[in-house]
Amino acid sequence: MTQSIVVQVGQCGNQIGCRFWDLALREYANVNKNGIYDESIGSFFRNVDSRHEDPANIPLGQGKGKIKSLKARAVLVDMEEGVVSEMMKGPLAEVFDCRQLLTDVSGSGNNWATGHKMYGTQYHEQLSDVIRRAAEFCDCLQCFFVLHSMGGGTGSGVGTSILNLLQDEYPDVYRFVTAVYPSAEDDVITSPYNSVLAMRQLTDHADCVLPIENQALVDIVNKIMQAVPSSKTGKRMYDNAAVKPDSALTAGAGGVVSKSQERPFDKMNNLVANLLLNMTSSARFEGSLNVDLNEITMNLVPFPKMHYLVASQTPLYCMADVKLPPRRLDQMFSDAFASDHQMLKVDPKRSLYLACALMVRGNVELSDIRRNIDRLKPNLHFVHWNQEGWKTGLCSVAPVGQPYSLLTLANNTCVHNTFSEIRDRFTKLYKRKAHIHHYTQVEGMELADFSESLESLNSVITEYSSLEQTMGQPIVIEPRLKIAS
Fold this sequence. Notes:
Elements: E1 3-9, H1 10-31, E2 36-37, H2 39-42, E3 45-48, E4 65-66, E5 69-72, E6 74-78, H3 82-89, E7 101-103, H4 112-122, H5 124-136, E8 141-149, H6 154-169, E9 174-181, H7 191-205, E10 208-213, H8 214-227, E11 237-238, E12 241-242, H9 266-284, H10 293-300, E13 310-314, H11 326-336, E14 352-362, H12 366-376, E15 381-382, E16 390-395, E17 404-412, H13 415-430, H14 436-440, H15 447-468
Parallel strand pairs: 1-6, 1-8, 6-7, 8-9, 9-10, 14-15, 14-16
Antiparallel strand pairs: 2-4, 3-5, 11-12, 13-17, 14-17
Helix pairs in contact: 1-3, 1-6, 1-9, 4-6, 6-7, 7-13, 7-15, 8-9, 13-15
């Protein structure tokens, strides 16, 4: 069994991380009734006896046996200590190793240059040390998950600085990035600069990026809240069946953090946390068709820089009757390809699929997956050189409170639309050189960083756009090579 380390950076990254660890503990508590430390729990947690640690700081009790005290395989970084301090005073405080935290007090001022050039350089050694400490507790480190936002200064700047460090020091360990993109109405005026400057780093140094749009999360939460029972009527109907009030994907019932301690963004962050849990389920639990994390990059990323995946998950909430008929199961597959279940405000059905992964959890047969692929495939456009570009995974452990779930990860050319919108907002500011001086006054930041980052983004947009233009065109079969006699 392999292990993964979660590196949560900035306010957004740490708030998502907080929800992830809470929901992960809830999931393991639901599955592991006897409190045994096994390989599954070991993928994200280490088992320590806080009363006895040996001089080498290697916790006792790492092997199988009763759970003593779980410590998250996490590194917490923020240049404004508020969120991390709040977490260390909250119900999850015991889960985090205080020697794997790095904070400052002044923040990055929504400035990528401050985060990347200044703090990234200033704290390079400390960042390397806390990450190495987390890595030394792993027997077989397979993956880093970097959680951060793109619009702020610390998330985009320090987050991408850490990404570069990971590539330099752990080149053989996969780097998955969950990046939250600002909406068009974002109140940070410099967020287009930060997003484009950070994207160059993601394109060059990440193995796989899951872009998530703030507005898409807002819309999904609103959709759920319209479906779940209201406090006044107590019951709301959807698809002729009552919705279970505590089974929505956003609900954290049964976790460490109580309902009264919920914060405004927790519902949105739960969506991202569940995305990570579902994506790693096959690597953590048994199943008839497991998908390892390295298989995601192997099967979904045909070209190095085209590693941006559109994520979608369903169901968003669960019906009261758990004896679900096949029709409801088929509807789940249909929903996963509907735009209102996606983490990006795009429409993949109108664009070209390079590859697609279906990661199913629960009591589902392989024949159900194959039947739905055959049903959906005629309406989806796959690139001509990868017509059978489906990767399927089936994990037998269902999410808490649900009979089954489906996560789709699609490498689709539609992402160029999201990137083009970011580029347009960047260009509106940059052509007037608005706020540029805040960046160039930071040591190490040059005006060329802006133009090179824009060029990098244009290159990604062009690669996806040019592939999309081949959609619907007749396939040209290249002539075979002839050997001259």
